[in-house]
Amino acid sequence: MRLIKSSIVLFATFILIFSLAACGKSEVQKVRVGEVTHSIFYAPQYVALSEGFFEEEGLEIDLQGTFGGDKTMTALLSDGIDIALVGSETSIYVYAQGATDPVINFAQLTQTDGTFLVSREKVENFSWDQLKGSTFLGQRKGGMPQMVGEFVLNKHGVDPQTDLELIQNIEFANIANAFASGTGDYVQLFEPTASIFEQEGKGHIVASFGKESGHVPYTTFMTKESYIKENKEVVEKFTRAIYKAQKWVETHSAKEVAESIAPYFEDTPIDLIETVVERYKEQGSFATDPILDEEEWNNLQTIMDDAGELPTDVEHGILVNTDIAESVISE
Predict the structure, then answer these.
(1) What is the pTM of this model?
(2) Domain presence at residue 40
(3) Which of 132, 157, 99, 49 is nearest to 311 (CA)?
């Protein structure tokens, strides 16, 4: 009789363990994330992946390249992706078009511009007024890089419309190749391209747009309002994983960060990744928490307005949800 009871208890325990395992397995949820471009600038996102922070939260991330703000928004609005990593200006453009299901910024990843000014010739004692009379190969009109670029030029007394020849009709993916082929005296580039050009003697980094522009919600995670309502727990878990990664990046060296994200940049030498990470850490480009505050939001709209690209002024609370980030941080 005792043997039978023991067998029953053992069987029940097995069933319980199996059920819990099955239950845990079913809780893993796939989240499709579209990134506007693939860049070391987004290091905390790759740390969240490589260090298993998303996995700890029961999330499986399907990371997709959407390449361009307009394409990223199209993918999000058409349910091709669940969450977008893109500049906050895109949410304002969508809102201004009368969207019935607005796109909400819920977790900030980068807090400065991520581009650098690269000159074709080596420049001694660089000053911004040296751009006057030059040909400047900028970024796509209406995107954050171009708007920040114009904002910084104006800040230093250089009118991008009259003081230089501004080229901004080249596709994002082709800008670096255009400069390498001989177009422009100066170009605005992301890393690691800027450092690669410097190593190869194709250009020289002379200034940082991130240092000059101040804090701005340059790249944030956003999703449709309806997705947050229907998947609030998923968004909370996602934000928690990002916050863990942000603190990890903040407390680890550039070398350690480079080693963590290297699998996502197989064609980039590890020492170059480290150089780029150090540069971004030094200028405070990586947000240390996911909260997009009102001051940053207003700075964004000032930059958009100065560039003539702000379709309508939008209050912080309309397109920004800080409740989720604040809740995660307070845990």
Answers:
(1) 0.88
(2) yes
(3) 99
